Amino acid sequence: MTLPIVRTVADLRAQVSSWRAQGLKAALVPTMGALHDGHLTLVRRGRELADRVIATVFVNPTQFGPNEDFARYPRDEAGDAAKLAGAGCDLLFAPTVDVMYPAGFSTSIDVGPVTTRWEGAFRPGHFQGVATVVTKLLLQAGADTACFGEKDYQQLCTIRQLVRDLDIPVAIEGVPTVREADGLALSSRNAYLSAEQRQVAGQLNRVMRTTIDRLHAGGSVETILADGTAALLAADFTAVDYLALVDAATLEPLPTPAPGRLICTARLGAVRLLDNMAV
């Protein structure tokens, strides 16, 4: 089956209105393309929650910093459409930059404290770009549910906050991270890793699991996190931007071992690998 593709907001809304007239519910899966099984798991989850699934493919320029990989970010619309069709998607919304940010566009959304630490500190402006484009996509599609992966955990928390704050009538569904056999979280940017870097990358999962085991056993959070950081550097990661135990909703650091989220970003050359796990 060939997946129908729409490129304008009017055409997207017309299709959703047609489904609504039939009493059907819709799920939205926003993506930037370069799809892998993590994205397709979101589509399959959307299929469980609704009658129809809309995927979006839009490489959003406003969430990339000036020295980031917007120009070289992988793009393969035909391949993505084939994968989406195979996963049970019903419609692809693939707008151009001019559709999403027409001449004179000047609004941005700042979600506040949940965005300021961690990725927000390392990528200034990133979450304003994410929040703005996701808000637009949610309002454009008018879906009942929207599915986001837990791999980008701070992004998921940001989206939950903006939906609550702006009273957007959509249920946000967090979907567990899909991993490779060695535990590496699936990511479109994994394609940037060399063969040697890919071997090192699998150690991220191992170190994080060891860190969680130590947190469960009790002790100094500061010491345990410092040891985890040292273990990543010893495993040949280039740098560790952060390894932190945080509150699962606010992302504020937890000073003592407690239920929360272990979050980490480690670098292999120019590639930043993000991961998180429940504690």
CATH architecture of the largest domain: 3-Layer(aba) Sandwich
The helix-and-strand class reads alpha/beta
| Beta-strand content | 15-25%
Question: What is the name of the CATH topology of the largest domain?
Answer: Rossmann fold
Structure description:
The protein has 279 residues and is an alpha/beta fold. The protein has two domains: 5-175, Rossmann fold, CATH 3.40.50.620; 188-274, Pantoate--beta-alanine Ligase, Chain: A,domain 2. 39% of the residues lie in helices and 18% in strands. The chain is built from ten helices and nine strands. The protein has helices at residues 9-21, 37-49, 77-86, 97-100, 119-122, 126-141, 153-166, 195-201, 203-217, 221-234; strands at 5-6, 26-31, 52-57, 91-93, 145-149, 171-175, 239-246, 261-268, 271-278. The strands form two sheets. A six-stranded parallel beta sheet has the order 1-4-3-2-5-6, sandwiched between helices. Strands 7-8-9 form a three-stranded antiparallel beta sheet, with helices on one face. The mean pLDDT is 97.
Gist of the model:
With 279 residues, the chain is of the alpha/beta class. The chain is 39% helix and 18% strand.
Set down the secondary structure blueprint.
Blueprint: E1 5-6, H1 9-21, E2 26-31, H2 37-49, E3 52-57, H3 77-86, E4 91-93, H4 97-100, H5 119-122, H6 126-141, E5 145-149, H7 153-166, E6 171-175, H8 195-201, H9 203-217, H10 221-234, E7 239-246, E8 261-268, E9 271-278
Helix pairs in contact: 6-7, 9-10
Structure keywords:
3-stranded antiparallel sheet, 9 strands, Pantoate--beta-alanine Ligase, Chain: A,domain 2, 279 residues, Rossmann fold, alpha/beta, 6-stranded parallel sheet, 10 helices
